[in-house]
Write a structure and sequence with these properties.
single chain; alpha/beta; OB fold (Dihydrolipoamide Acetyltransferase, E2P); Rossmann fold; seven-stranded parallel sheet; six-stranded parallel sheet; 24 helices; globular; binds adenosine-5'-diphosphate; binds magnesium ion
């Protein structure tokens, strides 16, 4: 077993797992701050990689200082520094000079430097240059005597949290690092390290924290990036293999009669399935025919018709005598699925029930008895369906809609809660780049629905500012007068407390529309603060065509379907992520009507504009997802929180996409060569994965 670590001997990973406060004395308050940075054990500490470096070794002449960039330079203090004070505020200024030029140096609120800078003496400075008109200034530069040999030439700059300082972290690091280095195991097989020309673990961890040259940092980074991705991909793949090996799920193999019922059911849809839908249904049917539990993700852009695939799968399951759960993230969506599917299912003799948090106790009891007797074959609902009180006659399948709302962590909980041996199918409308999918869903098989049903009009997307309100209102009226319906989306429910920011709120807009512009129209209000009954009522009103204009927050983002809606206006569009905007506009263009989405934003921020432009330029969710990753740039990876993705400390999914693909292949080869997870190198890889990501992934040890 891989958990039996060299019984009897000194545990070689003991130090790595040791709580940091047991390794050296740290004031309790500082310890708390470290935890905020994710540091609990000695291993976490050394895995807290610098986000940047202060490089005192590569000096530039003053003439080559660049606006906005950090640099080091040697210069003489030309004037006695002058100090200006007002209350606690102070400005210290002087002029620095070298052979190439002069630059002004300014220190805010650091009056004590007055006595440390002497006129006529040469220092080594380091700071960020800022251009103010024609004048170049260096703001708050650090400095030291030119020949001060006590300080290393390159110093790490760590991720910070308020209350902690670089020096705190550096001191702890310097004391713990030398003890950890000899204990670091090597999870990357020698053959791979050789082929990839990667340095050893101790070298990498030493140089990333205490580098002696820029080249050493590069070498260390190269290895650590590789290591990080290797561990994630390898770890997730081992989980997948482990799952594949266990095999006690129901085998769902339809006989002729069951096949006939499935055909009838599919024929009851008012459309023909697309090729993609058919293919995915076949893939799923192949999965559930085996005792190995299915673990599949269906990824398909908004409107690609995932619901029909889910429904067909449940029908197949029911026709073979088994029960399914269909879980949606909101009661609005769950109710919609139920209303759309229940008649169609009952048409082929399959009983469906709906269970929400708000379902009355007596009704819940009735549903439960039908589940236990097997009368109800399909249970649709929100989280409420996972209640421990639900007992089943023969539960075989769990489908989760809009998976991206749940995240990796919860995903583990879901299948654990509902029993280990279910076939699970998760559906996500967030198109994610392949690289990200490999990590996020590395433990799942993936089916992709690329095509959207034929006959859809593409959604046109435009940008607008609030100066154009009049025109926008006209467009809205014209749509409504033509019999269409309109969504009006705002980022928040009520006006902000600190109403400095002009963020639009639904409550405010709703009142405004009702009292003036849209007095004559039927307006609905929808937001997450309402009770689910109220929300359901509004949504039903909108779906039935009794509401012309729905003012809503992003609660409509998820899956709601009304083919008559042809226009969506999104206020403060800059506040939303690209994926969210794309999801939102997916609520329109679901019918035969020409559909338009207007992204309103008064932001003049460059990146914000670029992001909005991107949304206007394509309706391909996959392209958008790639773009999103690119625009967010390194160090700000959205998926982390939103998707419950383990935190990448050094790799970057956009930049390292090519590497990721190569690593995936390398891992496959390793597992194939060793043929089982208990073999040396695979086991070492898995151990290292758990050490690095175990806390975040919250998965039970295999
Ligand atoms: P999503 O993948 O976003 O969940 P839905 O399953 O809600 O998409 O489907 C979007 C709309 O397209 C629904 O109105 C559905 O009835 C319709 N639809 C699904 N499949 C097809 C198809 N093959 N042809 C035409 N319309 C379809
Ligand atoms: Mg859907």
């Amino acid at each position: 077993m891989r958990n039996d670590r060299n019984a009897g001997q000194e545990d070689p990973v003991g130090l790595l797992e040791k709580p940091i406060e047991k390794c050296l004395s740290i004031p309790p308050k500082r310890l708390e701050l470290l935890k905020r940075l994710g540091v609990y054990r000695a291993y976490d500490m050394v895995s807290l990689f610098p986000k940047d470096y202060e490089d005192w070794t590569s000096k530039v002449p003053i003439a080559e200082l660049v606006d906005g960039a950090d640099a080091s330079f040697c210069a003489i203090v030309r004037q006695k520094p002058s100090l200006f004070r007002k209350g606690r505020f102070s400005v210290l200024q002087t002029i620095l000079e070298d052979e190439s030029g002069v630059v002004k140096a300014v220190w805010f609120n650091q009056p004590y430097y007055l006595n440390k800078l002497e006129k006529g003496v040469t220092y080594l400075f380091r700071g960020r240059t800022k251009r103010d008109g024609k004048v170049f200034e260096v703001i708050n530069p650090m400095f030291r005597l030119e020949d001060d040999n006590d300080v290393p030439g390159i110093r790490p700059i760590y991720p910070m949290t308020k209350g902690l300082t670089q020096n705190h972290v550096r001191t702890i690091m310097e004391s713990i690092l030398p003890r950890v280095l000899p204990e670091l195991p090597e999870p990357i097989p020698d053959s791979v390290r050789k082929a990839e020309r990667l340095c050893s673990a101790p070298y990498a961890y030493e140089k990333i924290h205490l580098p002696d040259s820029a080249a050493a940092i590069e070498e260390a980074r190269k290895r650590l990036i590789f290591e990080e991705l290797f561990l994630i991909i390898g770890g997730l793949k081992s989980i997948k293999m482990e799952k594949a090996a266990s095999g006690s799920a129901a085998t769902i193999r339809p006989d002729a009669a069951a096949k006939g019922r499935l055909q009838d059911f599919i024929r009851s849809f008012p459309f023909h399935l697309t090729d993609d839908q058919e293919r995915v249904i076949r893939e799923v049917a192949g999965d559930v025919a085996l005792p190995r539990p299915m673990n599949r993700l269906i990824q398909g852009d908004v409107g690609s018709g995932k619901t029909a695939v889910a429904a067909a799968t449940m029908c197949l399951c029911a026709a073979c005598g088994h029960q399914s759960i269909f879980m949606a993230p909101t009661s609005v969506l769950a109710a919609q699925h139920y209303n759309n599917l229940k008649e169609r299912f009952s048409g082929v003799g399959i009983r469906t029930d709906l269970m929400l948090g708000s379902t009355k106790a007596a009704e819940k009891r009735a549903i439960r008895s039908r589940l236990l007797s097997g009368e109800t074959k399909i249970l649709i609902g929100t989280h409420a369906v996972l209640s421990e009180k639900n007992e089943y006659h023969s539960l075989a399948l769990l489908i989760t809609d809009e998976q991206h709302r749940f995240g990796v962590r919860q995903r583990g909980a879901l299948s654990a809660e509902a029993g280990r041996d279910l076939h699970t199918l998760v559906m996500s409308a967030t198109p994610i780049p392949r690289t990200l999918a490999m990590i996020l869903y590395g433990d799942l098989d993936i089916s992709i629905i690329k095509s959207v049903p034929a006959g859809r009009m593409p959604i046109e997307t435009y940008r607008a500012t609030s100066d154009e309100d009049e025109r926008i209102f006209e467009i809205m009226k014209r749509q409504i007068d033509a019999g269409r319906q309109v969504y009006y989306v705002c980022p928040q429910i009520e006006p902000g407390e600190d109403s400095e920011d002009e963020i639009s709120s639904v409550v405010e807009q709703y009142e405004r529309f009702r009292e003036s512009v849209f007095r004559e129209y039927r307006i609905g209000l929808l937001h997450g603060g309402m009770t689910s009954d109220d929300k359901d009522e509004v949504m039903r009103g909108f779906a039935d065509g009794n509401v012309d204009l729905l003012v809503s927050t992003t609660v409509i983002e998820v899956g709601v379907d009304n083919p008559n809606a042809s226009l969506m206006v999104i206020e403060n569009a800059e506040r939303f992520g690209l994926a969210t905007l794309h999801q939102l506009r997916g609520r329109i263009g679901r019918g035969p009507h020409r559909s338009v989405c207007i992204l309103k934003s008064d932001s003049e921020e460059k990146l914000a504009l670029k992001r909005l432009k991107t949304v206007c330029s394509t309706t391909d969710g996959f392209v958008l997802a790639e773009k999103d990753l690119e625009l967010r740039g390194p160090g700000d990876f959205f998926g982390t929180r939103q998707h419950g993705l383990p935190t990448l400390r050094i790799a970057n999914l956009y930049r390292d996409a090519g590497l990721l693909a190569r690593i995936s292949q390398t891992v496959d080869e390793l597992f194939k060569r060793e043929g089982g997870l208990t073999h040396t190198e695979s086991a070492r890889l898995y151990d290292a994965f758990r050490r690095r990501f175990g806390l975040e992934m919250d998965r039970p040890p295999l």
